[in-house]
Amino acid sequence: MATAAEIRDLVDKMAAERARLVAQARAFTDAEASRRPKGKTGEEEWSVKEQLAHLWEMERNYIAWMRRALAEDEPDVTEVRGEPVAIPVEQANAHSVAELLAALAAERERTNAFIAALTPEQFDRRAYHRLFGTLTVLQWLRSFYRHDRMHIDQMAGREPSYRPRYATGVEPDQRRR
Question: Any idea which architecture 4-155 has in CATH?
Fold first, then answer.
């Protein structure tokens, strides 16, 4: 069962990393945020705007996975998807950074409401995903701030300080553009 201190730490880290991400994204003009880095592959070749759209989409997916974990005992969420976002990765460069950040802010409000409604016991519910293995709701939620941290580094042109641990040990080639 998650303690009040663990939940507070989670919420604080989510807010801090998202604030860093927003500051990083705001440092780019719309033209700069539409450019894709040269010489990169997969997710690392995405523009800042594409990364923001990806974060929005993944936040919805993570919430959908956790909702399934709350409804069923240790479900396989590999094929579960969240509600589609209004601006998918493939269309992100046609929109402004401000528009994407507003969407992320609204999504995070819904996520924070989801977290606030959880009982301490619900943080221990588990779900399986073929890429990530079996994680608790608390572990899925911790991936939000780690995912933000990874994209902060990518936007800055740095090697990400965080890389997801895939159950297979290998990052899948499932990126879209």
Answer: Up-down Bundle (1.20)
